[in-house]
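Posted in: Protein Modeling Q&A

I'm a second-year student putting together a small comparison for a lab meeting, and my supervisor asked me to include a predicted structure for Cilia- and flagella-associated protein 91. I've never done this before, so apologies if this is the wrong subforum. The sequence is pasted below exactly as I got it from our records. If anyone can share the structure token output, I'd also love a short note on what stands out.
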Amino acid sequence: TLGTQTDYRDGEAQTDPYSPEYVVPGGSVPELLTLATLTWGRGLPAGLAEVEMIERAREKRAWEATLPPMVNASQVAKRRKMMDAMERKEWAFREQEIEKLQEIRLEVLKKLLQRRVENQNELDAKRLDDHWHNHQNAKEEKIKKIQHDYALMLRKLIAKSKKNVMGKLERRDIIKDYTDFGSQTYAPLSKTGYFPDNHSERYVVENFYLNTFAGLCELEASLPDSVTQLTIKAPKPKYTTTKTGYIKRSARLEVELAQVHQ
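Accepted answer (user: helix_wrangler)
Welcome! Here is the predicted structure, written out as tokens:
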């Protein structure tokens, strides 16, 4: 009258299929026992490959039944010839199986290589996109800076042009020219007809007292003794103690600094 509800499917709790015990009569070899190596998950349920294997086993048993008995030399030679033919047939079949396995492995390898190439292409495309975005961002920043500088210089030119809109003649301000070191007085332009490289020898200083030995001796003799003969006064020692016998705070600090320095 009671029931239970489980959270598991029947397939998850299902064990291997039941195989009952059997007894083989004497003198008989059931064909089903030739498939005893096939178990659930290892050949069962049977597929196309297992069916082909069963058919080959049946053909081989039928072929073994047709082998002649070894009663004389001719029968032995015939038996050996048939066995050699069967062996060549089995080797040919084995070679076909190896070729099929190689083809399957080759297909798997091709798929793996194709997948790796696709992954590498995706990675390269992503890197190129990131590189392109970085260049685009740098380009946009550069364009913004150029536009900002352009607007700034344009405002400066507009402000400068508004100072003398009518183009009136202004009298020269000598004080302004000499206070501004970028004016025509200190830095004249070549377009006004001034070339600073011409007549540069006029700025060469030629002095008798600096260029000749006699002038240097006369200049040295004219100097006072306070310049040639220096007098050094020894510094007075600093008192580290007060009149009452206590050590000053500055003296203690100097001792601590000396210890830290050491």
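A couple of things worth pointing out for your meeting: The radius of gyration is 56 Å. The chain has a mean pLDDT of 84.
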